[in-house]
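Hypothesis: this fold can be encoded by more than one sequence.
Test: take the structure tokens below, design a sequence, compare later.
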């Protein structure tokens, strides 16, 4: 079983390493990545990525188009403290040693992907060569001094890269994280032809770093459903909010960030008074 280690990804970090493994149970051409990134190993996050053979077609191309690459089919990002195999790794060397077992366990837990009819052609297309690994750190202005947002991508080409966002407290602790394939990022932005394009796209969240919950729609009197329609958008309110607590959150003008998890909706995440960052709802265009 082959391993590929890549210490020192993108932007310098005190705890930074990567491992790649074949996804043997899924078959030829399938693989998995695990990428650790953080200011320290205690405050690092791990991004798991499962990949299939063949690149992802652009949004306006036929879905059975054969392209080189290894498109992500599953992503998960979480603090390393939540992964038992990684939680006690005190430095980058220990993290690198522990990472293959964590990635192997994660891959075994994934559902088997549906095999495409043109799998042989996708395998023959092979991987892409290049680098679309970039990173940036942006201040979360509305949250106050020290709160910041790490954004980064990892992949040999931008369309098939994995991208991630991590909200961190002033002491570096990860408070919230989300991961998205590069082809989803391209739908929200212009074409991702270069690393510069990717960096600009990921930094685009900076335009929303001053938003507060004052932008949330008011939950009107008499509405019993958890969906609030205002103009061209519908917001689905998360549990356990009710009308009173939702409108109180709106009036409190807490720091809020809109995160793009997919092509149908955005997650509305809020810095709560107790220091947690939680998803309070999702908004979609009607």
């Amino acid at each position: 079983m082959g391993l590929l280690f890549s210490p020192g990804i993108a932007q310098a970090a005190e705890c930074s390493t990567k491992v790649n493994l074949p996804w043997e149970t899924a078959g030829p051409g399938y693989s998995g990545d695990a990428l650790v990134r953080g200011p320290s190993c205690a405050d690092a996050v791990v991004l798991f990525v499962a990949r299939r053979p063949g690149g992802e077609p652009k949004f306006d191309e036929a879905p059975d188009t054969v392209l080189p690459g290894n498109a992500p089919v599953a992503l998960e990002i979480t603090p390393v403290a939540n992964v038992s195999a990684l939680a006690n790794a005190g430095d980058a060397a220990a993290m690198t040693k522990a990472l293959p077992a964590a990635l192997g366990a994660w891959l075994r837990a994934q559902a088997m992907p549906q095999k495409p009819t043109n799998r042989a052609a996708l395998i023959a297309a092979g991987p892409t060569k290049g680098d679309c690994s970039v990173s940036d750190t942006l201040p979360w202005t509305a949250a106050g001094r020290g709160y910041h947002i790490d954004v980064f991508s990892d992949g040999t080409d931008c369309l098939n890269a994995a991208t991630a966002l991590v909200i961190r407290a002033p002491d570096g602790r990860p408070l919230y994280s989300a991961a998205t394939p590069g082809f989803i990022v391209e739908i929200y932005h212009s074409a991702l032809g270069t690393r510069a394009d990717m960096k600009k796209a990921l930094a685009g969240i900076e335009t929303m770093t001053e938003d507060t919950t004052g932008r949330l729609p008011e939950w009107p009197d008499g509405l019993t459903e958890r969906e609030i329609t205002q103009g061209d958008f519908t917001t689905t309110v998360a549990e356990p909010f009710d009308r009173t607590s939702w409108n109180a959150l709106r009036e409190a003008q807490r720091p809020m960030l809109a995160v793009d998890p997919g092509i149908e909706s955005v997650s509305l995440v809020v810095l709560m008074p107790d220091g947690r960052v939680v998803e309070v709802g999702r908004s979609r265009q009607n």
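Helices lie at 92-108, 119-125, 182-188, 195-202, 243-252. DSSP finds five helices and 14 strands in the chain.
Hypothesis status: open.
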